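Tokens for chain A. Residues wanted.
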């Protein structure tokens, strides 16, 4: 079983991520107060701490995980090749809709980071929020 380590809110596109200790989730939308994504199947993004560390170690640089701009960072769960599966974080259920493909902005954060995130879904996953609930740092994370 894994753990929710961080929660980040993006109020608007291009703005800095805001760290939260807990938040409300809205089914079919994502984090309450978050900027709306143009894709309805990308309501939240989840990043694995272990995958992030593997990516940054491969470029020999320390980069803060919030620079990935994911909503959640988790530990202890493998996110690779999980489309269609249900990830549970506390009471929250997320249906995995795809891989978060690293964009060109990752190289602006650190040269080589985009390519380092490509193998093994290191860039994380996208998902659709199934239920209304609240989540908080420290919640358990597991596959259903």
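Reply:
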């Amino acid at each position: 079983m894994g753990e929710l380590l961080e929660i980040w809110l993006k109020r608007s596109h291009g703005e800095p991520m805001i760290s939260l200790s807990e938040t409300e989730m809205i089914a079919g939308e994502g984090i309450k107060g978050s900027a709306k994504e143009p894709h309805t199947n990308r309501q939240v993004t989840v990043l694995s701490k272990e995958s992030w560390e593997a990516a940054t170690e491969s470029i020999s640089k320390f980069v803060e995980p919030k620079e990935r701009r994911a909503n959640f960072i988790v530990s202890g769960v493998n996110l690779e090749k999980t489309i269609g599966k249900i990830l549970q974080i506390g009471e929250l259920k997320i249906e995995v809709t795809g891989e978060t493909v690293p964009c060109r902005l990752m190289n602006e954060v650190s040269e080589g980071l985009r390519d380092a995130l490509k193998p093994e879904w290191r860039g994380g996953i996208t998902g659709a929020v199934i239920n209304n609930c609240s989540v908080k740092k420290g919640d358990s994370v597991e596959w259903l």
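The chain has a mean pLDDT of 92. The helical segments are 49-58, 105-109, 113-117.
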